[in-house]
Amino acid sequence: MSGAGTRAPRRDQDRRGWLWGPPPGWFRVLPAALLAAVCAAELISPEPLDIGFLLGAIPPLAVLSCGPAMTAVLGALAVLVLISPAFRLNDPGNTDVLTVGFVAVLSVLLSFVRSHRDAQLVTERAVAQAAQRAVVPPLPERVGPVRCAGLYRAAQRGTLVGGDFFDVRAGPHGVQAVMGDVQGHGLSAVATVASLLGAFREAVLDDPDPETVAARLDRRLLTDSAGEQHGELFATAVLLAFARDARSVRVVACGQPGPLLLRDGAAVELEVEPGTPLGLGLADAAPPGGCAVRLRPGDRLFLASDGVTEARDAAGAFYPLGERLAGLADEDPAGLAERVWADLVRHCPDVRDDVTMLVLAPEPGPDGAAPP
């Protein structure tokens, strides 16, 4: 089972197109193809053709896909073709030649600037992706006795991390998992996501129950908000704590519905007492209530963010996750999140919110102990 939590959003790449990345192969050969077409047309035509103006477009096209050297070569060839008697380009005057020559020189300068800027952007993107992956690293295939699969699609273009987060960690008391949604979207929410995940990873080492972990996350947000004027950070989350033998799980919901339990071909939402969101300072006064669920062999827990449950089609109908989930599940839960994503996109082609899904499949050993 592959963890896809931080994989680059393929659908977002399709939506952005090549304007956000390197040009396609056909565009790179377009300047040379245009030059060859002008030459061929003049040589084939029995009469001179007044198409010399097309040569002025070759250097600017080269700027978008070629380096300074190739742009200079194509610009020089455009000038040579324009003044060569063999191509009979209707006797261009000095003004035409100077214009094409000036455009060619200017294009070389622009190509030089663009090449250096692109190199800098590549470096900055690599650093940004490394930082984002450090915040939300790829989900492992297995954490202790729990198999894991996740999917993340950030709403903001070009990002791997947005307002949603999840993590699965093993501690001395068993495997614990969290999935949540912080206030805000995109890069503005990354700092809050990093703070919450850091607090969660530390809490897993000390706290055996999700209620205590939720209280620590609530306190973390309160502390972060105290350092900002008019700051108010909050997040919704679902926390799960598996027993060491993975035969039961305790679930706490803080402002989000509980997970769906896939069992015997049906998907049932666990009845978890709805708690207050994290960051409102209510964890100590009114701690969230949890529920304990006994697990059977083959059970799977499916968690989804509101980007899934609140997605609407053209008619305004919400995506029916509970109805679709059982039909999309099979024996291997590895691709369940991907199948739900594909079905969600068919229902709502223009998903504008962060989409997060997490599949947890506990697999205790035959004697009830966690497998090695």
From TrEMBL:
This is PP2C family protein-serine/threonine phosphatase. It comes from Streptomyces bullii. Its EC number is 3.1.3.16. GO terms for molecular function: protein serine/threonine phosphatase activity. PANTHER family: STAGE II SPORULATION PROTEIN E (PTHR43156:SF2), STAGE II SPORULATION PROTEIN E-RELATED (PTHR43156). Pfam families: SpoIIE (PF07228). The keyword Transmembrane applies. It comes from the Bacteria. The chain crosses the membrane at residues 51-83, 95-113. The keyword RNA-binding does not apply. Residues 146-362 form the PPM-type phosphatase domain. It is an enzyme of class 3 (hydrolase). Keywords: Hydrolase, Membrane, Transmembrane, Transmembrane helix.
